[in-house]
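To the team - flavin mononucleotide complex, inputs and output below.
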Amino acid sequence: MDVTALFKFSSGLYVVSADDGGRPGACLVNTGLQVTSAPLQVSVTVNKENFTCGVIRRAGHFALAVVDESADMLFVGRFGFRSSATEDKFDGIGSAVAVTGDRYPAEHVASFVACNVVQTVDVGTHLTFVGEVADAGNLSDVAPMTYAYYHGTLKGKTPPKASSYVEGIS
Ligand SMILES: Cc1cc2nc3c(=O)[nH]c(=O)nc-3n(C[C@H](O)[C@H](O)[C@H](O)COP(=O)(O)O)c2cc1C
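Output:
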């Protein structure tokens, strides 16, 4: 089996974030998806070891922001290679709070949705949260960043906690 076949799946990059009243969590994912339009639902798949996963599970809601092509590796590193367990990832950048109470980045993002979790599916290493959209908005006209752009133009790597990680190939 050639697992690199899955590298040809298309996806975008997103910041998923949640606030359960304690320490907020936010991390970069490539697993944001629209699931249905009536009701309007999206899903996001988060590694159980990411701090943000526990925050979403406890909060029962999350915000999902679509990263745009203005984002640089500093922005990616902030959300994708560091942990909310030890730092406030929103410190020093523009952000806003959704109707669900979840803070999301307001810079380098094209749009956002705010969701209430209606289903949680345990897929082993990760949890898939299905959320019903409570609010949505556009923030920039810059093109959304695809995973292909991240790899090809930013020369970004895939960390072990990403759903698409394959050992030995980054
Ligand atoms: C390009 C990229 C894609 C990623 N995709 C995912 C993903 O789909 N799911 C996931 O759980 N983590 C993914 N990650 C890893 C998390 O963003 C990373 O583990 C983060 O530091 C977790 O932060 P937290 O501990 O504050 O939750 C990805 C990281 C990068 C750089």
